[in-house]
Amino acid sequence: MKLHDIAVNNLRRRKGKVFFLVMGLLVGVAAVVALHTTTTILEEDIAHKMDEFGANIIVTPKSEGLSLTYGGLSLGGLSFDMKEISEADLEKIRTIENAANIRIVSPKVFGVFEKEGHKALVVGVDFNEELSLKKWWKITGDAPEKPNQILLGKEAAEWFQASPVPLLEIKGEPFKVAGVLESTGSQDDGLVFMNLPTSQKLFGKQGTIGMIEIAALCKNCPISEIVSQLSDKLPSAKVTAVQQVVEGRMDTLHSFRKFSLGISALVLLVGSMVVFVTMMASVNERTREIGIFSAIGFRRSHIMKIILLEAAAVSLMAGLTGYLMGIGVTRLLLTFLTDHMPKFNLDPLVALGAVFLAVLVGLLASLYPALTASRMDPSEALRTL
Amino acid sequence: MSYIVANQVAKEFGDKENKVSAVRRIDLSIAQSEFISIMGESGAGKSTLLSMLGGLLSPSKGEILIGGINIYGLKRDKLADFRREFMGFIFQSFQLVPYLNVIENVQLPLAVTHYSEAEKKNLATSALERVGLKDKAFRLPNQISGGEQERVAIARAVVNEPPILFADEPTGNLDSRNSEEVMKLLKRLNSEGQTIVMVTHSRRNAEHADRIIEVADGCLRETTPVRAAAC
Q1: What is the C-alpha to C-alpha distance for residues A132 and A105, in angstroms, rounded to an integer?
Q2: Which residues form the ABC transporter domain (chain B) (predicted)?
């Protein structure tokens, strides 16, 4: 017979009370696990989607001057003392240390042509990459699939009245208008998008690239690290992180995390209150029994140990079952919150964390009841002697 | 030679306006291996006196010496150790722990000692043998009779062989046959050398003791042998 035997026996023979105590903490732990796991999974899912949504790194040729801009960024292509990005550089991008984080590489070539009094910028793109990068584009018609097909911005289409007459001559070459972009509110509205090799040939820029837009998955890697690696690989290019995009994404993720932490803290607080009230009631109910312990020579620390051992055992049960229930709830939540079930790995650290948290909260919430029990006057508690 | 000594012990409850004197400046000395009974009407102060002698309730005035040690001069934990080592308690209404079986209840005072598990079990079994309940070791308190519960309480009080036994109305909830058995048991323990201080209402039970002390209105009147009243 040791102190822990007293604690275990009490729990074994008071199953109803143990059940309510476990339930009180279990709900809190399950909620925290569900919130944490759901948030983490959604965060990764959202981060993944956000990283795919538009570029966060721009690669331009190094130059001594600035002349034209695209998306608010300078384009070296029309400046003096310009260095070129070669098509072979594209391959190097996929060889950096963080190559796994590079999701989309969209090279561009620029050229200007004039027709019917309008000057327009032609952008040669790899349509597969460009459409992946600009998920917000909505096309009336089809995306170009053949070398002689082009895509017009909304304003460009109006200038050249290309919609009703789906043929447009650019520098003496006829192009079929495969589709027209719906208004984007950006400068894309005034552009003509063309197949990359075709545009290189048309403007005499074979083998060169005017600019590269890159979408990097950077939730868990510093974007500056990727920029640095790219700069090393592409010495003739200027590599820039689009800070407002990166920071905006990180802000969104941080807000999401803070919200989850706030809710978790609230739920845990409620859980700890349940434990506190139940343990306090249990101590009051066991006044006589605690009086016996004290009378027969248990020290204050012995009585505290019994109460805290009980709390730890109950919290351990609540932590384990709460974790399992939390994972179940997460699966259920994700079916409602996402279109597809994201990749879902059981994290042993979360399991350990849930158990640790449950025991910590259980012990903290039981500390005052245990102190109260240990301070009971034996004769007062027994009221018989 | 005096083993337990109460010097001018008094106990008051309540605040200034509602102060109640439960025990008034009592002097008492009990010899080693003596069996004394404390008798008195309800509210006379006998249980309060027993609690103070047993180290459970500190007196408002005076001191209690056991083996020459002023027990209320000890720190709380040391006093708990002293109770565990030198005193056994038999409470009114048995006061067994309901979720522990008979042998576990008997082992309770040993839970915080340095005995090995095997030694604890042997001591508890031996104590149960002394009270004739070895065969009911694994029953819960609610699965045995009142008389048996009282004997379990006695086994628990003597399991670590303390030199002093305090008993508060040990037969209060028992019929006459069970009462008699319990008193015989206490008498036997006393004959084995244990000092016993017992509170009882029953003159018949009190007469098992070497000396009867009567308490009335917080004051002490002794009989057999008679000592001068303290107030």
Answers
A1: 10
A2: 4-230
Convert the pLDDT of each residue in A159-187 to its tens digit: 877 555 678 888 888 899 999 999 988 88
**Tokens 């004997």, located at residue:** B151
Q: Give the separation between CA B131 and CA B150, rounded to whole angstroms.
A: 10
Task: Give contacts of A293 with chain B, Cβ < 8 Å.
Answer: 108
Q: Which amino acid is at B81?
A: D
Mean pLDDT throughout A346-368? 89
Q: Are A378 and B56 a contacting pair at CB < 8 A?
A: yes
Residues from chain B contacting residue A296 (CB–CB below 8 Å): 83-84, 89, 108-109, 156
Distance CA B184, CA B161 (A): 18
- A309-347: buried (b, 16+ CB within 10 Å) or exposed (e) per residue? bbbbbbbbbbbbbbbbbbbebbeebbeeeeeeeeeeeee
B8: number of Cβ within 10 Å: 13
The C-alpha atoms of residue B133 and residue B128 are separated, in whole angstroms, by 5
CA–CA distance, A53 with A22 (Å, rounded to integer): 45
What whole-number distance in Å separates Cα of residue A79 and Cα of residue A207? Answer: 19
Residue carrying structure tokens 């079990």? B121
Helices (H), chain A: 3-13, 15-52, 88-93, 127-133, 154-160, 196-202, 223-233, 243-285, 287-295, 300-337, 348-374, 378-382
> Which residues lie closer than 8 Å to A114 by C-beta, 6 or more apart?
A120
- Provide the residue type at A311 as one letter: A
Q: How far apart are CA A12 and CA A6, in angstroms?
A: 10
Q: Is A112 exposed, middle or buried (0-12, 13-18, 19+ CB in 10 A)?
A: exposed
Q: Is the ipTM of this complex over 0.90?
A: no
C-alpha to C-alpha distance for A224 and A219, rounded to whole angstroms: 12
Map residue B20 onto helix, strand or coil. Answer: strand
Going by C-beta distance under 8 Å and a sequence separation of 6 or more, which residues neighbour residue A118?
A: A159, A160
Task: Write the DSSP string, B154-187.
Answer: HHHHHTT--SEEEEESTTTTS-HHHHHHHHHHHH
Contacts of B84 in chain A (CB under 8 A): 296-298
Q: Which residues of A232-271 are buried (b: 16+ CB within 10 A; e: fewer)?
A: ebbeebbbbbbeebbeebeeebeebeeebeeebeebbeeb
Write out residues 323-342 of A within 8 Å (CB-CB) of B: none
Gap between the Cα atoms of A341 and B196, Å rounded? 75
Residue with tokens 């290309």: A162
- Backbone CA torsion sign across B25, B212, B167, B174: negative
Q: What is the pLDDT of residues B61-79, one digit of tens each?
A: 999 999 999 999 999 999 9
Is the peptide bond preceding residue A174 cis, with omega within 30 degrees of 0? no
Domain spans in chain A, listed from the N-terminal domain onward: 3-48+251-382, 56-241
Q: Which domains are assigned to chain B?
A: 2-223 (3.40.50.300)
pTM for the model stands at 0.69
Rounded Cα distance, A200 and A211, in Å: 13
Sheet of strand B2-13, all strands in order from the earlier edge strand to the far edge: B20-31, B2-13, B61-66, B69-70
